[in-house]
Design a protein that fits this description.
heterodimer, A: mainly alpha, two-stranded antiparallel sheet, 2 strands, 1% strand, B: alpha/beta, Rossmann fold, 3 domains, 6-stranded mixed β-sheet, 4-stranded antiparallel β-sheet, 15 helices, globular
């Protein structure tokens, strides 16, 4: 018995079960409802775009890690898959294949690997890719297939998103009332019968994902709740001031990338604050910037920009917003 | 709604929920055969080692003083068995370091005169405040929750400070361990009398015994028994690690926060473990020094997870044999619980006054998993009960920025292990916290 060698290591000697991999695949599972809905809505092209983005992201991550950074590639930890799916979720289903590949290269190469890989990137990689594409290919990135074309009928029709037509209409001097007549109803917006990027259209499907991630304790409620409620409050203020120029708050929350951004993009671990108080500030900041861009900017939609801008503030938030130090007195300590 | 109003007390910040695995909760505390030889370390407490009074060849009786405290922050050591003193030399103890210990070859079981070994309960406290303190010091009582701080020091309230509450810590939040739980079930009255002795010694009117809600039987029993004792309340606490941390417990029970670097007495509290409270009872009412204690021997592969009455100095291997022997797939043997216990390199090390349990961890759970990059998930920040940012401390300590670590309050860390436990990237956060703390202490000197 005395020849038995024992492992000696400092405490703790037990560990919780959730590894990075499980957390990441948990996020992937949470995105399945939105993916299924987009397949239902946009048809086989949704699968095509998503698989292409995921495969490109995996290949780029592997290649860059192995040949450029010369380290052991760890592509199956799930983070590249998430980036791929999120990139696909943020583009129209009709996007040509080469644009998707370019987007994946920018997302993984510039957005993530250039900073040293998982854990080191200051900006959400999928959004870096998305914004790059939006600026480089504005036409392709804003031609939306009309929803409901799904498996039922193959049709190349394309139209603007409701946020886009509002912005255009208001710019042409049309009144909010006439514009809203052609807008989808709240229930259509909630279930997802609207035009838009692949994964952003159904608030319901995205909320299912949120519930799953909260239940699995993958994320906390702070960022989604702070972001959605701040969009509600700030757009509500504008609406109260001038309802002829601004859409109502519920409309703002249900359209564009708000749900996708609040649930899957702003909550990215690497690019969001560490403390719960910091997360609240971060979420409110995104909400405010989104509303400002939507109301006064030249783009109809501002969620991606808002998240990227707030990503840049994360180090500052982490520096000044600290958890309560046990035993310390005072409000900010 | 009723549930919400009646919610269990807990500390509001941080904490984790490891599986509690109380395998030995139903096993009665058993007497165990005496080993052939015991090794009694002369330093089983925080403070100076005691000064040996015996030499090789001396005959000693159980309960006889064999090393006397050196200064105030130190504790007496007594022979736990009768027999002949062997070598007085350095041996490896559970800390992994070589420490001076007195070996005693066991012969018979003769006890020192004047120790009351009858099971009868002595309720009447005859000693006065001063005599109680002297008795506790004489009998070598130290904190049995883990830190082994000499109890008489804790009970000597410094000038200018005063206590209004005694807190008896029956939380036992470490997974697996059941020594305190069984003691509360089997010696409830003794613990209550011990509590009254401590109250008298401190001159306080109120005592709270805090117990985690996974020990409902102990809570019920003590609630019933405590009706005959004035000023003692029993509080059930939420199962949440580290509920039994001194600072967390005070926060949970009285909503007071011990200031950074401070002691419970700074907020009017003195905290003692239930095991210590029982020892205080035995010291004061039975004239019995601390020479035995309850030790849990447990683990998933172990044949009979048990609780034993163990003489101080008994080799760990003797206990493991009594619990069915070391399992084939053993990977690690831990002295204490899985969250804060120390892994043993050798199972011949002796049980000390503050050894609450021996945990056998199978091979498949003994090795650490591969470490990955920090993904900034914030789970360590959320888990830290002291409001620190463990991920950040780890980086500072790793890079040698100890001044900065000190500024960012690394010394507040209680090394509870919650951050490392939670980290999905398996980063050894507490290891670096410890390194940082050691280096900051060096900077201060």
């Amino acid at each position: 018995m005395s020849t038995k060698f024992l492992t000696v290591s400092p405490s703790p000697h037990v560990h919780q079960e959730q590894s990075v991999k499980e957390l990441m695949y948990g996020v992937v599972i949470a995105m399945v409802p939105a993916l299924l809905f987009s397949i239902y809505n946009f048809g086989i092209e949704a699968i095509y775009v998503t698989s292409l983005a995921v495969i490109s992201c995996l290949i780029f991550e592997f290649t860059i890690a192995k040949y450029l950074l010369q380290r052991e590639p760890d592509v199956w930890n799930g983070s590249a898959i998430i980036t791929g799916i999120l990139l696909a979720f943020n583009v129209p289903s009709s996007l040509p294949w080469y644009i998707i590949v370019i987007g994946s290269l920018v997302a993984i190469g510039i957005g993530k690997m250039s900073f040293g890989g998982l854990g080191n990137n200051p900006f959400n990689p999928a959004l870096v890719g998305r914004v790059f594409l939006l600026i480089s290919f504005p036409v392709e990135m804003t031609s939306w297939p009309v929803p409901g074309n799904g498996f039922m009928e193959i049709d190349g029709a394309s139209g603007a998103t409701i946020l886009g037509s509002l912005k255009e209409g208001l710019g042409n001097g049309e009144s909010m009332e006439t514009l809203m007549v052609s807008a989808p109803s709240y229930s259509e917006l909630f279930w997802g019968f609207q035009g838009g990027s692949l994964g952003e259209i159904s608030a319901f499907a995205l909320l299912l994902g949120l519930v799953y991630m909260l239940y699995k304790k993958i994320i906390t409620w702070h960022i989604p709740v702070a972001m959605i409620s701040s969009i509600f409050v700030f757009s509500g203020l504008l609406w109260l001031i001038d309802p002829t120029q601004h859409a109502d708050p519920l409309f703002h929350v249900l359209t564009g990338g708000v749900m996708l951004g609040a649930i899957f993009m702003a909550t990215d671990y690497v690019t969001s604050p560490m403390t719960t108080k910091g997360m609240l500030v971060f979420g409110v900041g995104i909400g405010l910037i989104t509303v400002l861009i939507r109301a006064f900017g030249s783009y109809p939609e501002g969620v991606s920009f808002a998240i990227l801008i707030m990503n840049a503030f994360v180090p500052l938030i982490d520096k000044y917003i600290k958890p309560h130090r046990f035993g310390a007195k005072g409000f900010l300590s | 709604m009723l549930n919400l109003l009646n919610h269990l007390k807990t500390f509001p910040q941080g904490g984790v929920h490891p599986d509690d695995n109380k395998l030995s909760a139903k096993s009665h505390i058993q007497e165990i055969s005496l080993p052939k030889i015991v090794y009694i370390p002369i330093s089983q407490h925080i403070g100076k080692p005691a000064e040996p009074l015996v030499e090789r060849g001396d005959t000693v009786k159980a309960g006889q003083i064999i090393a006397v405290h050196e200064g105030f922050v130190s504790a007496n050591i007594h022979a736990s068995v009768s027999g002949k003193v062997g070598k007085v030399e350095e041996i490896m103890d559970s800390s992994g370091f070589k420490k001076m210990a007195i070996a005693i070859r066991v012969k018979g079981d003769d006890w020192e005169e004047g120790i009351d070994r009858t099971p009868g309960l002595v309720k009447e406290i005859e000693l006065n405040k001063k005599e109680i303190l002297a008795k506790i010091m004489e009998m070598g009582v130290v904190g049995q929750g883990g830190a082994a701080f000499p109890s008489h020091v804790k009970l000597s309230v410094p000038e200018g400070k005063s206590a209004d509450h005694l807190i008896v810590n029956g939380v036992e939040c470490e997974p697996y361990l059941t020594a305190d739980h069984r003691l509360m079930l089997e010696k409830p009255e003794e613990i209550l009398v011990g509590t009254q002795i401590l109250m008298k010694s401190l001159g306080v009117e109120n005592a709270i015994i805090g117990i985690e809600n996974n020990k409902k039987d102990a809570i019920k029993l003590l609630k019933k028994k405590s009706k005959d004792y004035r000023g003692i309340k029993i509080a059930s606490l939420k199962v949440q690690y580290p509920q039994g941390g001194e600072k967390q417990l005070i926060k949970a029970l009285l909503n007071r926060e011990v200031p950074p670097g401070g002691l419970p007495i700074d907020v009017g509290c003195v905290v003692h473990n239930v095991g210590t409270t029982f020892s205080v009872y035995q010291a004061v009412q039975k004239n019995k020094p601390v020479i035995e204690r309850v030790v849990t021997v447990t683990g998933k592969g172990l044949e009979k997870p048990s609780n034993f009455w163990v003489r101080v100095g008994t080799p760990v291997s003797h206990l493991i044999d009594a619990a069915g022997g070391l399992p084939e797939n053993t990977g690690k043997v831990v002295s204490g619980g899985p969250m804060m216990g120390k892994a043993l390199a050798d199972i011949s090390v002796p049980i000390a006054k503050a050894t609450s349990g021996i945990l056998i961890i199978p091979e498949y759970e003994a090795k650490r998993a591969k470490e990955y990059n920090c993904i900034r998930c914030g789970k360590c920040v959320e888990a830290c009960p002291m409001g620190l940012e463990p991920f950040h401390m780890m980086l500072l300590a790793k890079k040698g920025f100890y001044e900065k670590a000190k500024e960012d309050n690394i010394m507040d860390c209680i090394e509870c292990g919650s951050c490392s436990f939670e980290c999905p990237s398996n980063r050894p956060i507490v290891d670096y916290m410890r390194l940082g703390k050691i280096m900051v202490k060096k900077l201060n000197n």
